[in-house]
Structure formats: structure tokens, C-alpha cells
Design brief:
Number of helices: 3
Strand order of the largest sheet: 1-11-8-13-4-3-2
Order of helices and strands: EHEEHHEEEEEEEEEE
Distance between the termini: 27 Å
CATH topology: Jelly Rolls
Radius of gyration: 17 Å
Number of strands: 13
Strand content: 35-45%
């Protein structure tokens, strides 16, 4: 699959948004496994209750015992990799740039749950700050009213997506669909409002950092 045929670019790449449909060849299998993770780990220490942070969502991090037992979920990241590598070249402007997976997690959102505006530019990994360049989200199960709100910053000259500096932001919305992926720079704020739903929204997110193929 070529990103060139799937991507939706903004004006002069000012809004570097990639939306890819039918991104997983084994979507139904991945969805079934993700549902099983939810059933198996809902009442364990892997359950993260975000209600205290006004974010009623359930998140499962990419821990060895979860993704070890359910290692088939790595198929999602493997299928994303060629697309994200192409995206890294476009975003960085460097034809030798690729992307290396740094962390990933499953997220489950039930009725009236939401995610406040946030980004993944820097995350705490193993007690150290890890800088990320790209965030990819694969939607395994959605409903017709599901959407992702994006808040695009206005770069301050000189334009640099490798080390951005911004003055303001503007909002846009992506309507979500089953087996679709959204790829954005890790520094872009994004979130979703509470939605009345009958099923659980399930997605897998992956953070990437730049990696040069030839040093």
C-alpha cells in the first residue's frame, strides 16, 4: 500500500494529516484479540481508571505480559510501518528518514467517555523523557458519530517540523471509521468529546521517533 495514494495533505503540507482506510488485512482478527484483552484484564492492575483525571477511558499499555500473551497484536504495528516510514520522509523532508516504534497502547472508550486535548511530543518512558515525532492511531471499532478533533499549530518562521515552534492553533475534525488509521505529527494536540454510544470504541496508538537509515 502506498501512502501517496491514501494520504490527505493540507496546503503545502501545513496540515500533515494522513488518513488511511482499510489499513489492516486482518482487521477482524485484531479486533477479536483486542476485545479479549479487554475481557481478560478489565479487573486487574492493567486497568487504568482515568476518572480521577476527568478522563473516563480505559487504557492498556504495551506491557510485556499483555502484548506477550497477545503478541499477534504486533501485526498492527508491522502493517503500519511502511506507511509511517513514508510519512516520516514527507514530514522530515529527508528521503533517508524512517520511523522507529517507541511505545504503543490499546484504548477503550465506553459511553460518555472522552479524551481531553493532548499530544505525544514528549512522554515518560522508563523514568526518562522520550521525544516522539509521529503518532499513529488505528481504529478497530468505531461508531458513525465518532470523530477525532485536531488542533493544528501555526508555525513561526523559519518553518521546522523537526523542531517546531508555534504561535497559535486552528481546529479540524476527522470522522472515524472501522479499520482506518490516522497519522499525525506527535506534537499536534488532539482529543475527542464524549459521545453517546452503544459499543466500545477500540483503538491502538503507536508513538514513533525519527530514525535515519544511513548514518
Amino acid at each position: 500500500m502506498s501512502l501517496e495514494n491514501k494520504i490527505e495533505y493540507g496546503h503545502v503540507f501545513a496540515t500533515p494529516l494522513a488518513v488511511v482506510g482499510n489499513c489492516l488485512s486482518d482487521h477482524e482478527q485484531m479486533l477479536s484479540i483486542a476485545r479479549d484483552v479487554h475481557d481478560q484484564y478489565r479487573e486487574t492492575k492493567h486497568f487504568i481508571d482515568n476518572a480521577a483525571r476527568d478522563m473516563p477511558a480505559v487504557t492498556y499499555w504495551d506491557t510485556p505480559d499483555i502484548f506477550g500473551k497477545y503478541s499477534s497484536l504486533n501485526s498492527i504495528a508491522s502493517q503500519l510501518q511502511p506507511l509511517v516510514d513514508q510519512y516520516a520522509k514527507r514530514l522530515s523532508g529527508d528521503p533517508q528518514m524512517t520511523a522507529i516504534r517507541k511505545m504503543s497502547w490499546l484504548c477503550y472508550q465506553d459511553r460518555n467517555s472522552f479524551h481531553p486535548k493532548h499530544n505525544h511530543w514528549a512522554s515518560l518512558v522508563d523514568q526518562a523523557v522520550s521525544v516522539h515525532n509521529i503518532n499513529a492511531i488505528v481504529y478497530l471499532q468505531t461508531e458513525s458519530n465518532d470523530k477525532l478533533d485536531l488542533y493544528w499549530p501555526t508555525p513561526i518562521a523559519p518553518l521546522s517540523y523537526a523542531n517546531p515552534s508555534f504561535s497559535s492553533s486552528r481546529a479540524s475534525t476527522v470522522r472515524l471509521a472501522n479499520n482506518s488509521a490516522v497519522i499525525i505529527p506527535a506534537w499536534v494536540d488532539h482529543g475527542c468529546d464524549a459521545a453517546v454510544r452503544t459499543t466500545t470504541k477500540i483503538c491502538l496508538s503507536v508513538n514513533y521517533s525519527y530514525s535515519k537509515t544511513n548514518y
